[in-house]
Design a protein that fits this description.
- The protein has one helix at residues 2-14, and strands at 26-38, 41-56, 60-71, 74-88, 93-108, 111-128, 132-143, 146-160, 163-172, 175-185.
- It is mainly β.
Amino acid sequence: MFKKAITAAALLCAINVHAADFSYSHFDIGLGKVEIDSDGEEYDGEVLGLGLSVALGNIFYVTADIGRAKIEESTQTTTGLGLGVHAPLGSSTNIYAEAGYARVDIEDGEWSIDDNGTAYTLGLRQQLGEKFELGGGVSRVDVFDSADNSYFIEAFYKAKESVDVGAEISTADDVMGYGVSLRVNF
């Protein structure tokens, strides 16, 4: 149960994704599902995530996020603060990297545990015409003296000038996550 909670933390941090116009100033909300197969036992859970990203000029940005997962009888809350940097790799491709603080709180019946650690993300974003974006990358969360990597693929559609809708699939050790998100760019 403990390992699946740490892995779910990596997936929660990976939910922080970026808007289709390569804007790094936005508010987003995401809903998702997580499926865990740990030691032959299967667990399902729901995830809710909120994120904020604010550009600091043309290269840097700061992030803040909170996610909550309900997996069986346990509730996990993940919070994070980070700093990111991005750069173009041509006219329609962007690379970005984020590093930051991560906190994970887990409650399961009569016990609870929490820890502080670090989170890192490296990703690519590819613009496909005026309305579509594809992206992907790897995230690493280091909490509870354990580090877990997760990998994600995402797609966004620009529904309005400042509103994007997206979908994501992510995977980590014995964990599969998928979700949808709504992003408001400012």
